[in-house]
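Is adenosine-5'-diphosphate placement plausible here? Inputs below.
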Amino acid sequence: MIGKILIANRGEVALRILRACREMGIETVAVHSTADASAMHVRLADESVCIGPPPARDSYLNTAAILSAAEISGAEAVHPGYGFLAENADFAQMVEDHGLVFIGPTPEHIALMGDKIVAKRTAVELGLPVVPGSEGPVDDEPAARRAAERLGYPVLIKAVAGGGGRGMSLVEGPAGLGDALRMARNEARLGFGDDRVYLEKFLARPRHIEVQVLADQHGNAVHLGERDCTLQRRHQKVVEEAPSPVLGARERARIGEQVAAAMRRLGYRGLGTVEFLWQDGDFYFIEMNTRLQVEHPVTEMVTGIDLVREQVRVAAGKPLGFSQDAVRFTGHAVEWRITAEDPQTLTPRAGTVTAYHAPGGPGVRVDSALYAGYAVPPHYDSLIAKLIIHDVDREMCLRRSERALAETVIDGVPTNIPLLRRILADEAFERSDYDTNWLGRLLAAAAT
Ligand code: ADP
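Reply from A.M.:
I modeled the complex. Tokens:
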């Protein structure tokens, strides 16, 4: 087994990984920027190494500093968490070249799924249903026009290297295509250093449903059910739940088994999430994430399986400790992402937390690195806490969510808690009658 793990991340996910390591008797090494010197993950780790100044490119993305920290501390493995270097195939390769274990899939599989066109082609080969789109990248306007005519408007222009909800633009009709294409390529070049774009049919009212898979290095793969991440703002997830309120047990088993079989064929190892849009009963693959996801706790709540522990076990070469038949789904879980943001503009805000009280009671889990006196730095993601609620069914889970959100105190920095409570109070949300654009429409209506 692995004796010491370097956690190449910060915030709540660094704590999450640390907790799993501690329970497994594995020593931990935290890395941090100078802005995070007094962060909770640094305080709780067995050892810590400063890897650079505040900007992420100089610290949490500084591969040389991170590998040196692993070397100096004698770490045997690196856990990348999510974001930062988690889906950087070159980093995974460097980790392995240094004789360390990368807690994640092979660099080849990360690269394969990192290119959205190759990922889609692979999904087709693996027998998964995909969103209709252009054959490959569209190089010029005539090619884009031909593809759009074939797909039918509206279409979505997507960056091949896009991610995090960025690099997508909607084209309603032929008149807007030329300008949108030029802008999308420009933005893709500036944002991702790769100006290739492709077209996809725009689904008008989809839900976002993703399947969690876990595979070992011995050819075994199981699915751990789905998460419904339909509640989004600007293509970014805000609230996630498991199971999806729109799927029945048979549909769940069918898509889950299809994904697990695809992973066995691919020879995939580790945790992975296969993301689909779902509309009128049909699934359409959009992408695969080759890492632990922000929303993984809802799966842990309904299955009782510690995903980080399993991730470390399979990275160490152990076979899966359970079969598909042993995976049981109990009750309902919802995750509320709490971000530090301005309530008017909904943009990230930094500041010092003056008072903090986390909710408790049965079925309440808080994943956060907050404490009173903590200064939320302006340099990183605005996610400061995740409230994960579990109960016997969705209705009780929502009531418990309201109780727990009302109990949460975070003073000193504004948060999106009022927005989360507004979502919770909405009848359409309660009935689960919404699509990925619902929250955007709600906010736009409130603004006028
Ligand atoms: P990213 O890698 O940036 O997260 P995804 O491809 O996973 O991008 O898509 C993120 C979100 O964008 C989806 O959950 C969905 O809300 C929206 N989206 C993506 N593709 C389509 C599509 N073809 N039609 C409608 N909405 C889409």
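Short version: The mean pLDDT is 97.
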